[in-house]
């Protein structure tokens, strides 16, 4: 009962009394249950090992730079994030060619949004999630590899897109929409990286999909021989993103020429509610066990939860704006060889699809229209 009371008090801190029915359903679905009926957490606590590169100390010109007691290593989190970025970039360029657009411009655009995304993601993570660390060590702002924020990455990518627009004098919205169509698949890789390092531990629970965390991170008074289950929010978000990734792949395969803004709106509208409710399972700032993994609260909500309101509003507006409209090209066409691929792909897509299939939800054009 002590464990259940602790979790219940954590939820009550965030929910108003008027949402008591939500608290009741949520706690009974995800909170601890009676010992005689619980199956207990079934997911083992697995940590992906780092791969040391100790052989580098034997490479000429590098041996003086390598500490043999602490050689560089390939870290699982960084590797999976890099794999997600690479996968998303390759698919974005491929889909750019499928639409007959300039793939070189897309590659340049991806460089801008990736750099701005990572830098601003770290800056916002440091300012909103680790303000005391920034005050104690201002150079923490420059160590981009020491913390990233999901919504900070979205905001950074948006800033990069605007910077690219003003510097290159090009319209980026269609490129943003193409990137959004592959973002869920890349996000699966990123959240898999979070799940293998367990950097988003959540509240204590004994439901079957909780992770069997080591007993050293259990609350005080927890039975030493019992399995300590906790929500792993990185793992949960990764699993919940898979259906969205499959849906985006299916939607593109069914109709590549959808109105600009459709995929941006879909991703924002789908991600925001899931992230909002998952953050209620995060550790409270008072937790003394995970000092570096707790999220601060502003008005009872995490920074990401406040960002969810803006993301959901923008997503719904974009869906409403693009709904029923035909596809209109806003980016530059590619060179002649890419135009040939575009024409061939358009003919194949037209032959395979139903003639009545709309190019966007609710629209009925026979083929994609273009504009300068």
Explain what this protein looks like in three dimensions.
The protein is built from eleven helices and eight strands. With 372 residues, it is mainly alpha-helical. The chain has two domains: 1-36, no CATH class; 39-370, no CATH class. β7, α11 and β8 (369-370) form a beta-alpha-beta unit. α7 runs parallel beside α9. The longest helix has 27 residues, at 103-129.
Q: Indicate the mean pLDDT.
A: 81
As a whole number of angstroms, the C-alpha radius of gyration is 24 Å
| pLDDT < 50 runs, ≥5 residues | 1-27, 33-38, 354-372
Give the biggest beta sheet: 4 strands, mixed
The percentage of residues in β strands lies in 5-15%
Q: Name the helicity range.
A: 40-55%
List the helices and strands and how they pair.
Layout (H helix, E strand, L loop, with lengths): L1 H11 L7 H11 L12 E2 L6 E2 L20 E2 L1 H23 L4 H27 L1 H6 L13 H19 L4 H25 L3 E4 L6 E3 L14 E5 H22 L7 H17 L24 H20 L5 E2 L6 H17 L16 E2 L2
What is this entry, summarized?
The protein has helices at 2-12, 20-30, 76-98, 103-129, 131-136, 150-168, 173-197, 233-254, 262-278, 303-322, 336-352; strands at 43-44, 51-52, 73-74, 201-204, 211-213, 228-232, 328-329, 369-370.
């Amino acid at each position: 009962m002590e464990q259940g009371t602790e979790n219940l008090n954590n939820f009550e801190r965030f929910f108003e009394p008027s949402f008591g029915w939500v608290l009741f359903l949520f706690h009974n679905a995800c909170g601890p249950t009676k010992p005689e009926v619980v199956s207990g957490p079934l997911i083992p606590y697995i940590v992906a090992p780092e791969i040391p590169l100790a052989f580098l100390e034997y490479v000429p010109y590098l041996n003086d730079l390598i500490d043999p007691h602490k050689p560089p290593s390939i870290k699982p989190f960084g590797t999976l994030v890099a794999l997600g970025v690479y996968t998303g970039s390759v698919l974005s360029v491929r889909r750019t060619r499928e639409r007959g657009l300039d793939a070189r411009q897309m590659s340049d655009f991806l460089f801008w949004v990736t750099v701005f995304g990572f830098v601003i993601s770290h800056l916002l993570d440091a300012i909103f999630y680790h303000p005391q660390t920034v005050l104690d060590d201002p150079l923490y702002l420059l160590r981009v590899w020491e913390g990233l924020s999901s919504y900070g990455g979205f905001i950074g990518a948006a800033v990069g897109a605007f910077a690219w627009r003003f510097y290159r004098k090009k319209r980026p919205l269609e490129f943003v929409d193409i990137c959004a169509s592959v973002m869920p698949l890349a996000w699966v890789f990123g959240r898999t990286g979070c799940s293998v390092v367990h950097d988003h531990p959540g509240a204590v629970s004994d439901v079957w999909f909780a992770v069997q965390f080591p007993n050293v991170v259990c609350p005080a008074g927890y039975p030493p021989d019992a399995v300590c289950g906790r929500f792993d929010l990185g793992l949960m978000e990764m699993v919940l993103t898979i259906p969205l990734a499959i849906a985006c792949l299916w939607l593109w395969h069914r109709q590549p020429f959808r109105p600009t803004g459709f995929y941006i709106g879909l991703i924002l509208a789908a991600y925001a509610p899931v992230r909002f409710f998952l953050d209620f399972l995060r550790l409270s700032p008072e937790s003394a066990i995970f000092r570096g993994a707790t999220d601060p609260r502003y008005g009872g909500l995490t920074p990401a939860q406040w960002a969810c309101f803006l993301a959901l509003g923008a997503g719904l507006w974009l869906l409403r704006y693009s709904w029923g409209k035909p596809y209109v090209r806003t980016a530059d066409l590619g060179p002649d060889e890419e135009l040939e691929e575009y024409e061939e792909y358009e003919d194949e897509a037209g032959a395979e699809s139903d003639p009545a299939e709309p190019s966007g939800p609710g629209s009925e054009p026979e083929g994609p229209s273009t504009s300068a």
